[in-house]
Amino acid sequence: MRPISINVVNSLILVLGSLAMPLALADQHQKDGMDQLISEAPADAKVYIISPQDGDTVGKTFTVRFGLSGMGVAPAGVDTKGTGHHHLLIDVDEMPDLTKPLPASDRLIHFGGGQTETEITLPPGKHTLQLVMGNYLHIPHKKPVMSKKITVTVK
User: What is the pLDDT along the chain (155 residues), one digit of tens a residue?
Assistant: First the structure.
C-alpha cells in the first residue's frame, strides 16, 4: 500500500474543514432558534444547467456547466448579500429539507469553493441533474433558487 502524501492529506483537511465549519455554525444557530440564517435571494435570481441540455446523450464522464443570473457566486463561509454557491443533485427524487444545510453525499455535491462547472462520471442509463443554490452555510435561500431538473442518458 502506498502512503498518502502530506500534500494530499493537507488538501483533504482544508476541503473537509471548509465544509464542516459552516455546517457546524448553522447547526449551532439552529439549536439556538436563530432562523435568520436563511438568506434572501434577489427576486430575479435564476440558476440553470448550461450543459448538458435536457435529453442529451453523454459519455460516462462528462462536464456539467452551471449558469446563474441575478445573483453572484461566493464560496461557502463568505456571507455576502445576494450571493450563494452551487449544489448539484444527481438522481434525487425527494428534495432534502430546504430550511437546513444541504447534506453532502455522492448524490448531493457541494461546490463551496464557488466552482461553476464539474466533471462527473455516472453509470450507463438515464439520470437526472438539478442545481440548488445555498448561502454561506449551505442553506438554500428563503425563496429557493433551483434549476429545472434535466434528464441525460449516459451511454
Answer: 344 333 433 343 334 444 555 555 555 545 444 467 899 999 999 999 999 999 999 999 999 999 999 999 999 999 999 999 999 999 999 999 999 999 999 999 999 999 999 999 999 999 999 999 999 999 999 999 999 999 999 99
Closest CA to 72 of 16, 155, 145: 145
* Full strand arrangement of the beta sheet holding 46-51: 46-51, 61-69, 117-121
Per DSSP, the chain holds a count of helices (H) and strands (E) of 1, 9
Q: What is the pTM of this model?
A: 0.79
Task: Compute the chain's Rg from CA coordinates.
Answer: 16
3-state secondary structure of 124: coil
Q: What nine digits make up the cell of 16?
A: 473537509
CB 83 within 8 A of CB 73: yes
What distances in angstroms separate CA 85 from CA 45, 104, 125, 137, 152, one per listed residue? 12, 13, 28, 10, 23
Tell me if the bond preceding 42 is cis, omega within 30° of 0: no
Residue 39 CA to residue 48 CA, distance in Å, equals 20
